[in-house]
Amino acid sequence: MENNAPVTIIGLGLMGQALAAAFLRAGHPTTVWNRTAAKADRLVADGARLAPSVDDALAAGPLAVICLTDYQAVHDLLDGSGMAGRTLVNLTSGSSAQAREAARWAEQRGARYLDGAIMAIPTAIGTTDAVILHSGPRADFDAHRSTLEALGTATHLGADHGLASLYDVAGLAMMWSILSAWLQGAAMLRAAGVDAATYTPFAQRLAVGVAGWLPGYATQVDRGSFPAEVATLETDARAMAHLVEECLALGVNAELPELLKAMADRAIAAGHGGEQYPVLIQEFAKPR
Amino acid sequence: MENNAPVTIIGLGLMGQALAAAFLRAGHPTTVWNRTAAKADRLVADGARLAPSVDDALAAGPLAVICLTDYQAVHDLLDGSGMAGRTLVNLTSGSSAQAREAARWAEQRGARYLDGAIMAIPTAIGTTDAVILHSGPRADFDAHRSTLEALGTATHLGADHGLASLYDVAGLAMMWSILSAWLQGAAMLRAAGVDAATYTPFAQRLAVGVAGWLPGYATQVDRGSFPAEVATLETDARAMAHLVEECLALGVNAELPELLKAMADRAIAAGHGGEQYPVLIQEFAKPR
User: Fold this and answer.
1) Range list for CATH 3.40.50.720 in chain A
2) Is A246 within 8 Å of B166 when comparing Cβ atoms?
3) What H or E segment, with its residue span, contains residue A76?
4) What is d(CA B102, CA B83) in angstroms, rounded to the nearest whole number?
5) Among A28, A189, B259, B271, which has the minimal tally of Cβ within 10 Å of its Cβ?
């Protein structure tokens, strides 16, 4: 443990405050900066040092964790500051393009740069439940890994600075899709008088089971070969038609089933009806 | 084990053949019937008896498992047959309304009736991996449970004959949604040069993690109360906008993200922005 390594936190929204508090709890000398200084009061009471300026904050140590509203705020605040020789870990939410552009911007100013995404809520920060994704040069991640681990489970995804943002939104798409599919089923079963607590263990077992198929299906996607080992897309599409009809008959929303069916129908029209579901990668990989 | 109980299988498509073969392997005297008798050749070689008529097939024992193309085929074939006193287990795919109507039809003809849905592919039949859902009178299921367990993991969902069909399509919606969300992420990451095998363990951990939240969220749905313990729907919707923009920038399909965002936006417009994701049950529970 090198938990005497000094750290700087720039941006003290709810998440920034949680990050600073986790560093303090882990024993790191912690310098904070925020446009509205009062946001630092609680942290200062807990031992943080409030920097009078961004330059002063950056000068406090080799590592600065940035957590602001958006990338524009990062540029507005740090352009012209003394970032040379520092490592910036930018946990601000943004796109992969913004992350790559910020990396170039920081490197042109003599800083090392890691982009990151926090897959956790503020109250989980500082526990292993808080997964924090990082992308950028591996050596820069390794140099600060044990410090970053004070914030949660620190993961390095690759050298491409855009990866943290991409994995983040891809993960959120999975999260919302599972929740939505579960709500779809819960709405259908509720129409038959079954409450969500009764239906949910079934949905949960199914989700875990399907998750287990993904590595095998990934092989199909990477090979670009989709033999129907389990079922053909045509069989799926027939069952999708049942699902849509059932939703319409029950008077529940059918938009998600209709979208699934529309994408399968397009792949079938393109000649893939005898292949297996992952052949839909060809539909997902291009704009409508 | 009462695996000397005689069973009848009506309908010898791929699935019907698998069902009959599983009964034979478990030692049940097995009578089969199919419109095209040649489909029974292999089963007869393995010890099945081919009935010369549907009435003869139904007369062979107390339990007949039916697996035909659709419910119309069930009615066309069995209307006027000697089903009185028999228990029919209808594993034909159809809607909850068709299942309930078939139950009334069979009961009017003096038969006991269970509806069912097979959540498995033919090659899994006869293993515990084959989950077979049943709905209808519990006593009728219990009377034949040990026989039905020769086909897979036999589950009873409730007395409403429509439940097997509803759980089946709700489960399929979960399956397709997870596969689609995973393909969405795989398409996004592939645009950044990451292959599916590299991305997939991340998606898999996330899916299993989110599945674990469902019971807690089910409590919110059943209470009709959605306090934002984790995040507000407004926070989700902002991240959904990032996801949509990222898909458009990458040139990958954005329809699934756009649908998720449209449903969240509608719930926010209805005043639920400060509540939590499961409040979307109100959108899923009504037609667009």
Assistant:
1) 7-159
2) yes
3) helix A71-78
4) 13
5) B271
Helices B233-250 and A163-191 sit at what angle, rounded to 10 degrees?
120
Residue pair A170/B188 in contact by the 8 Å Cβ criterion: yes
Cβ–Cβ < 8 Å for B65, B41: no
Distance in Å from the first CA to the final CA of chain B: 51
pTM for the whole structure:
0.95
Q: Please provide the CATH number assigned to the domain covering B166-284.
A: 1.10.1040.10
pLDDT on residue A84: 97
pLDDT in tens, A181-211: 999 999 999 999 999 999 999 999 999 999 9
Residue B176: count of CB within 10 angstroms of its CB: 26
CA-to-CA dists, residue B277 to A166, B36, B86, B101, angstroms = 22, 52, 47, 36
pLDDT at B1: 46
Q: What is the model's pLDDT at position A25? A: 97
For A257-279, give one letter per residue: b (16+ CB within 10 A) or e: bbbbbebbbebbeeebbebbbbb
Q: How far apart are the C-alpha atoms of A194 and A90, rounded to whole Å? A: 46
For residue B230, the model assigns a pLDDT of: 85
Tens of pLDDT, residue by residue over B254-284, are: 999 999 999 999 999 999 999 999 999 999 9
Most B CBs within 10 A among A71, A125, A169, hence the mutation to make, goes to: A169
Cβ pair A123, A130 in contact under 8 A = no
| B191, amino acid identity | A
Sheet holding B63-66, edge to edge: B49-50, B30-33, B7-10, B63-66, B87-90, B112-119, B131-135, B153-156
Whether A176 has its CB under 8 Å from any CB of chain B: the answer is yes
- For residues A91 and A118, is the Cβ–Cβ distance under 8 A? yes
Mean pLDDT for the stretch of residues B105-120 = 97
Task: At A181, list the tokens.
Answer: 């599919």
**3-class DSSP state for residue B157?**
coil
For residue B233, the chain A residue with the least C-alpha distance is A176
**pLDDT for res A1:** 46
* Residue ranges, chain A, pLDDT below 50: 1
Tens digits of residue pLDDT in B198-218? 999 999 999 999 999 999 999
Q: Is B161 a residue whose pLDDT tops 90?
A: yes
Report whether CATH 3.40.50.720 matches the domain B7-159: yes
Domain with CATH 1.10.1040.10 in chain A: 166-284
Q: Which of residues 81-140 of B touch A (CB under 8 A)?
A: 93-97, 121
Are B195 and A222 inside 8 Å of each other by CB?
Answer: yes
Is residue B163 a contact partner of residue A194, using CB atoms and an 8 Å limit? Answer: yes
The one-letter amino acid code at A42 reads R
CB-based contact B187 A287, cutoff 8 Å: no
* Cα distance between residue A54 and residue A218, in whole Å: 45
Distance CA(A196)–CA(A187), nearest Å, equals 8
